[in-house]
Structure formats: structure tokens, C-alpha cells
Write a sequence for this structure.
């Protein structure tokens, strides 16, 4: 049974969501501030965290930043009542895999959680390693290396790298990258792709400001140069 950690300072939201997730077959944990969220995440190792941005003690962005700095790449879905695009992009740059704006439908949130977990797990395919230049992506093992060095990538970052590696030298649009990572029915602003690419460059480029491998193609999107 997959374990979900719901983090929101509004008790009624956490209590209201729990029945939906339990009915969907998840074990549910709850936290109501950032400090408690970190404690539970470290202790109970949930399979996914639904994380509100506005939290007492430690806000959601800092919770995500701390987990990533500790090497914890658990999938994170951000909840936000803020309307500023910058808040969402910051969350994505910190390694969140998706975001949902308040107010939201509990059933939609459950569907988003399932979609993220499907991407993380995937079907048990035959072993396939996609190689492009210094990169090797183990599709079944859901891992990637650069010149033999393991890369600590979020599920979305790994999917972006895999899409680019499958089409070396070919420009892929932001929409194509998002569809490859999230599915054809995924709807998001194209700048979401930019945030994930920015994160990916930090991990694979010696100078992210002057990328050697993941290059911007003006007016189109990005391509992998190998």
C-alpha cells in the first residue's frame, strides 16, 4: 500500500482529503506545519508528499528545499492558493513534480497523485538503457548516469532527460517535453518546462548559465547536444 503524506495547516483540508485517498487505496499520514512535515517525512518515508506552500514554522518551499538538500527525492505535489506564477516556478525549481491550485477537487488531486506515482514506478519493462553522449538512462531501473556518475534526478527531470536522449540533436518543444513526462492529458503553463530544465542543467552542466548539453532552441524549446 502506497503511503501519502498530506501537509496543510488547515486541519479541515487534511481531514477532508483523507477519506478520498483511503478509498483510493492509500495509507494516509497528516501534518499541519513544516517542522512536523519534515519529521514525518524523515521517519516514515512516504511514497509521495502533497505539500501546501503556506505553512507555519517552516513554509512549504523550505520543506521541499530541505528534503532535496538531504538527498530525499520523494515526489512532491505542491498545493498553492497563491496566484503568482513565480511561486509555482520556485516550487518546481526546488524539485516539486507537480502543483495544484486551490481551490481544487479532491478527486482531481487523487488523480494527480496516481499519475505522478505511475511515472515513478512505470510498468516493469524489459531492461532498456538509452545512451546519448555522456548520459545513460536505465529506463526500467529509473536511474541515470553521466559519464558513469549517478545523477540524483526527480521523476520529472529524469523523464525530460530521457525524452531528450531519445532524440539527440532534435529540438523538442516545451509542450512535447511535458507530454512525455506527464502524459497527453496534462495541462500546464509552458514555463513549467523551463523550471524543470533549469533544475536539470544544474545537475548535468558544469556551467548551467552556458549549457553544453541541454541547449535552448529559440522559438521552439530544447535539444540535447552530444
Amino acid at each position: 500500500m502506497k503511503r501519502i503524506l498530506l501537509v496543510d495547516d488547515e486541519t479541515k483540508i487534511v481531514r477532508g482529503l483523507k477519506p478520498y485517498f483511503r478509498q483510493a487505496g492509500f495509507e494516509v499520514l497528516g501534518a499541519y506545519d513544516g517542522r512536523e512535515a519534515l519529521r514525518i517525512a524523515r521517519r516514515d518515508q512516504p511514497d509521495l508528499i502533497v505539500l501546501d506552500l503556506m505553512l507555519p514554522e517552516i513554509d512549504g518551499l523550505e520543506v521541499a528545499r530541505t528534503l532535496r538538500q538531504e538527498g530525499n527525492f520523494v515526489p512532491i505535489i505542491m498545493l498553492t492558493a497563491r496566484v503568482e506564477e513565480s511561486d509555482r516556478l520556485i516550487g518546481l525549481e526546488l524539485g516539486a513534480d507537480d502543483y495544484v491550485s486551490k481551490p481544487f477537487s479532491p478527486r482531481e488531486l487523487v488523480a494527480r497523485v496516481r499519475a505522478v506515482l505511475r511515472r515513478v514506478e512505470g510498468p516493469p519493462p524489459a531492461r532498456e538503457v538509452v545512451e546519448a553522449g555522456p548520459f545513460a538512462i536505465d529506463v526500467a531501473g529509473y536511474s541515470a548516469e553521466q559519464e558513469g556518475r549517478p545523477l540524483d534526478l526527480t521523476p520529472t527531470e529524469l523523464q525530460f532527460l530521457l525524452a531528450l536522449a531519445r532524440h539527440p540533436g532534435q529540438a523538442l518543444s516545451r509542450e512535447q517535453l511535458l507530454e512525455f513526462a506527464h502524459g497527453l492529458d496534462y495541462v500546464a503553463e509552458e514555463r513549467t518546462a523551463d523550471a524543470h530544465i533549469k533544475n536539470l542543467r544544474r545537475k548535468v552542466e558544469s556551467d548551467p548559465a552556458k549549457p553544453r548539453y541541454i541547449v535552448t532552441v529559440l522559438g521552439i524549446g530544447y535539444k540535447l547536444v552530444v
Summary: The chain is about 40% helix and 20% strand.
